[in-house]
Amino acid sequence: MRGSQGRRSLQQRLGFRLPQRRSHLRGMRSQCRNVALLQLPQCLGAPRPLSRRAPCRDRRLRRQGDRFARARKCDGGTLRNRQLTNEALSFPGIRRAAVLYRVLDVAMPYQVATRMVVTPSQLAADALDKEIARQPRLMAALADPGPLRRLEPFSRSAWAGNPLSPQVAAERDVLISLLPEVPGTERFSWLYVDRQILQRLSISACSGQSSDLLRLWLAVMIWGYNAIDSRGPSRVRAAAGSSSLVSCLGATRTALLASTPNFSSAWDAASTPPVPQFGFSYFTKWFWALGLAAPGDCDRALIFDSRVAATVKKLGKPWVLVGRNIAVRYASYVSLANSVAKWSSYCCGDPERVEYALYWMG
């Protein structure tokens, strides 16, 4: 049967029209004709439409639908919708519809399909772990499960001869007399400040007088400038001469050592009125040192300097800090870093390790 006559004859016998020749139905005509000829004896008695095999995509979707239908009928429960956790909903600046999450479907036959929502802190921890894995020296520094020592040496002669006000100079002399010497440097008289010393001074400054606050502040400034930055003594002299320094230290202590630390209020107290040569890179060091005496069940203040800010920017979307001003963004950073410490594979639940890793990579 060739040509239009054969086509019409075949359509009369089958009882339906064959598809027209089109570019997107290439080969369909010959396929239908061959199948029709094979089934012609059955079709002559009871004409019925020919069925073609469903494409691979349709079969896959049908199997997936059958799998979820079985899961819904399972006695163990029903499928849960994508629900956002309280941590994801409380993340600052993130809208309900724009929360970053990925869903893991574990749907075996005759079992309930479970959905796991990944929170923003887990995404931030994944991004941080990927960067840490590229730094072998940083991984070695974080391998020790104990607290970071954070030791910084300095020269006694560079700080002892720094002319300060009588009150600050007296506390400096007391501090230098308490600090240990670096072994093997008796000739050059090098001392050092580490985390243990700062924590001991912080415990004294929590309930002590203004002299204890000044002593801890001097230790933090010496630790921050260490032996590398020679501008430390002159900048400390400029900050110590400010009349608002003691009130600034007292206000930040009140905000940070409350039952619920208020990090944005502490930032505002440290920056208004501003103390000369005491920017956020150093007053967040003061926040961190003062928080060493805080109880372990609350968020701890962390250092936020230019190197940490550069790493946070490099890590991308999971580390975007949202807030109406820089004080609120600092509180967002502290909250995020404390949450990331619980999920990171390298930080052992210690937020200070998160800050140390950010500083290292900055």
Q: In a few lines, what is going on in this structure?
A:
This protein is mainly alpha-helical. It has 18 helices and 4 strands. It has 3 domains: 43 residues, no CATH class; 62 residues, no CATH class; 239 residues, no CATH class.
Helices and strands in order:
Layout lengths: L2 H12 L13 H11 L1 H6 L10 H17 L13 H4 L13 E4 L7 E4 L2 H13 L3 H6 L10 E4 H5 L5 H13 L11 E4 L1 H13 L2 H16 L6 H9 L4 H12 L6 H9 L8 H11 L15 H9 L11 H18 L7 H11 L1
Antiparallel strand pairs: 1-2, 3-4
Helix pairs in contact: 6-17, 9-11, 10-11, 11-15, 13-14, 14-15, 14-17, 16-18, 17-18
What does this structure look like?
By secondary structure, this protein is mainly alpha-helical. It has three domains: 3-45, no CATH class; 56-117, no CATH class; 123-361, no CATH class. It contains 18 helices and four strands. The strands form two sheets. A two-stranded antiparallel ribbon has the order 1-2. The protein has a two-stranded antiparallel sheet with strand order 3-4. Strand 1 (103-106) and strand 2 form a beta hairpin. The longest helix has 18 residues, at 326-343. It is elongated. The chain starts with a helix and ends with a helix.
